[in-house]
Amino acid sequence: MSEQTPAPTDEQTSEHEQLQGESPSPESQAGASESDLPEWARKELTKVRGEAASYRTRLRDAESKLSEAKSPEEFEAALAEVKAKDAELERSVLVGSVARRFELPDDLASRLRGETPEELESDAKALQMLLAPKAPPSLGGGLNPSDEDDGEMDPRKLARRTRRV
User: Fold this and answer.
1) CA angle, corner 97, sides to 62 and 54, nearest 5?
2) In 3D, which of 39, 43, 45 has the Cα closest to residue 27?
């Protein structure tokens, strides 16, 4: 009764190398510098990482479907399905990047039409023209008027008020 030890996976090998004192991976170095990034960049990085994770899971699903294919017809059907999903994902990434570039809300991003980046950009420009311009930040400067002020300036009242304070 001999037991075979399982072959180490890539993750186990990389952990072993790190424990042996190998240089840290670029991912761990990138994680250390992530705290130096501004908030908007961290949010965008988190979003991109989420998208990448979903792509990896879809790739694993596609690989498992392809490995289970037994005949050339099944292989072709699985390949066509993967190509269709890939084209759909590439389009959604392209539409999302064009929508962010032109600051379109997510509701309007799904309405972009066109196949090429140029067509999508021209459609995004047209949609952007229809949107109401964003309100500028508050341009009020100076002091805010108080409720105590009745609109008239009485020097005697002003002098009495400043003596008490």
Assistant:
1) 25
2) 45
Angle between helical axes of 72-101 and 117-130 (0-180°, round to 10)? 40
pLDDT confidence band for 82 (50 / 70 / 90): very high
pLDDT number for residue 20: 45
Contact 79, 66 (CB under 8 A): yes
Task: Please tell me the distance from the alpha carbon of residue 65 to that of residue 60, in angstroms, as a whole number.
Answer: 9
Under 8 Å between Cβ of 112 and 102? no
Token pair in block for residue 24: 């840290």
**Tokens for 96?**
């999302």
Q: What are phi and psi of 147, to 5 degrees?
A: -75, -20
- Residue 104, token pair as written in the block: 């379109």
Q: What share of the chain is helix, strand, coil (3-state, %, to 5)?
A: 65, 0, 35
